[in-house]
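Fig. S4 source data, part A: sequence.
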Amino acid sequence: MVGGYVSLSDTFVPELDFTYFFTKHFATELILATTKHEVHTVGSDISAIGGPNNANIDLESVWLLPPTLTAQYHFNPLAEKVFKPYVGAGVNYTIFYNVEDGNTVKKVSYQNNFGYAFQLGFDLMLNETFFINADVKKLFLKIVVTVDASNLATGLAMPAAVTINPLIMGMGIGMKF
């Protein structure tokens, strides 16, 4: 058993959000962004193939496209209110692409999959058209990652269930139209 866990690097990227209000309280939001992450295993035991116990293995990088659709409830929708908090929950589908395999292993593949998303945020109205938005989103995603390490030992392929639960913090300028 290889053990350990997978670690993805943190990243800072722009995000594009589209929100549509069905009523004064209920809206949906589509969240779009793409990020590149460095990937490592942490605390893996590769002593069976001549490597160390408690190893950190560089798995290079992968790009993620995690479009997320949330349904939101806005608590304070009246036009004269400046502070407008909301909560949201929804679904995420994460797509992995442009996998860069490292020198340590032969190939790494990632399974695209659905996950859940929860959101907490607020709009701070600057005037009737423009506002500042801040929110925090938590994604819950489980995928299968397969590491082909046949370059280290014949026939060595390691599928692993990996949990990725990123915390996404956003801040931006919005416009109502």
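Fig. S4 source data, part B ends here. The chain is about 0% helix and 65% strand.
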